[in-house]
Amino acid sequence: MAQHHSLRARLAALHEERKRTWEPAALQANIDQRQRLVDQADPSRWVKAGDVVAEFELREVDGGTLTLDGLLGRGPLVLVFFRFAGCPACNIALPYYQERLAPGLAALGAQLVAVSPQVPEKLVEIKRRHGFDFRVASDGNALGRRFGILYEPDEAAKAAARAKGSFIGDTTGLGTWELPQPAVVVIGQDRVVRFAEVSPDWLVRAEAEPVLEAVRNLQARAAAE
User: Fold this and answer.
1) Does pTM top 0.85 for this prediction?
2) Helix, strand, or coil here: 158?
3) Is residue 145 classed exposed, middle or buried when 0-12, 13-18 and 19+ CB atoms within 10 A define those classes?
4) How far is C-alpha 9 from the geometric centre of its chain's CA atoms?
5) What are the angstrom distances between the C-alpha of 136 and each of 81, 97, 112, 173, 214?
6) Do strands 135-138 and 111-116 pair parallel, antiparallel, or not at all (unpaired)?
7) CATH assignment of 7-224, among 3.40.630.30, 3.40.630.180, 3.40.30.10, 3.40.50.2000
8) How far apart are CA 146 and CA 47, in angstroms?
9) Residue boundaries of the structural domains of the chain
10) What is the pLDDT along the chain (225 residues), one digit of tens a residue?
11) Nearest to 52 by CA among 147, 130, 137
C-alpha cells in the first residue's frame, strides 16, 4: 500500500483495498457499522477542551504504571486512544503518529502515550511490530469510559462476529464488547484538556498538525505567563 502524507489518505487507501478484496456483503456490513456509529454518536458525552482531568493510572506494556501526575511532570500530555493491537486501521494510524506526530511532540517537550483497553500482554505486540518510540499502555477501558468515548458494536455486528467464532472480549482480554472510539486528547500541565478529537468512524482519525498546533499554543501560553 502506497504511503501518503495525510492519515486520511492512508486510511482511505485501506478502504479502497478492501473494496477490491472483500466480499461485497462483508464490505457493506463494515460500512454500515461505521455509519451507524456516526449517526448514533453523542458528542455531549465526549471529553472536550476545558475539562479538568482527574488522576489516573495506565499499565504500560513494558511493565510499570503511568500516572497523570508523573506524565505531566515532564510536559504536556497527548493521549491517542486506539482499539487493539490487531486492528488494521490502528496499524496504519499509530505508525503515522510515530512518523508525523511523535518527533514534533518531542521537540516541544510533550509526552505521547497510545492507550488501548487491551491487556498489556496482548497489547505489547503492536509496539514490538512497529518499534514505537512512544509509550503504549492499557487503561482497561477505565479512562475511555471516563472520557465518554466507549462504544459497543450493534446487535447485527455482534451476531456476525459470533457466527465467525469471534468475540472482541477475547481479543482485548476484558470479556466485554466495549472498545474506545479513536480519539486524541491534549492535556496541559494544569490538567486542563486543550484539544480533543473523537472519531466514531474508525477510518477517520485526527491528523498530526492540529495536535501539534494545540501543543504549540499551549507552550506559547505557558511562556507568556
Assistant:
1) yes
2) helix
3) middle
4) 18
5) 10, 12, 9, 16, 22
6) parallel
7) 3.40.30.10
8) 8
9) 7-224
10) 446 689 999 999 999 999 999 999 889 989 999 999 999 999 999 999 999 999 999 999 999 999 999 999 999 999 999 999 999 999 999 999 999 999 999 999 999 999 999 999 999 999 999 999 999 999 999 999 999 999 998 887 888 788 888 899 999 999 999 999 999 999 999 999 999 999 999 999 999 999 999 999 998 888 887
11) 147
The grid coordinates of residue 50 equal 476545558
Question: Is there a contact between 200 and 38 (Cβ–Cβ < 8 Å)?
Answer: yes
CA distance to 8, 93, 182, per residue, from 3 (Å): 11, 12, 21
Query: What does the alpha-carbon distance between residue 26 and residue 161 come to, in Å, rounded to a whole number?
Result: 11
For residue 154, what is its C-alpha cell? 450493534
Closest CA to 196 of 34, 46, 40, 77: 46
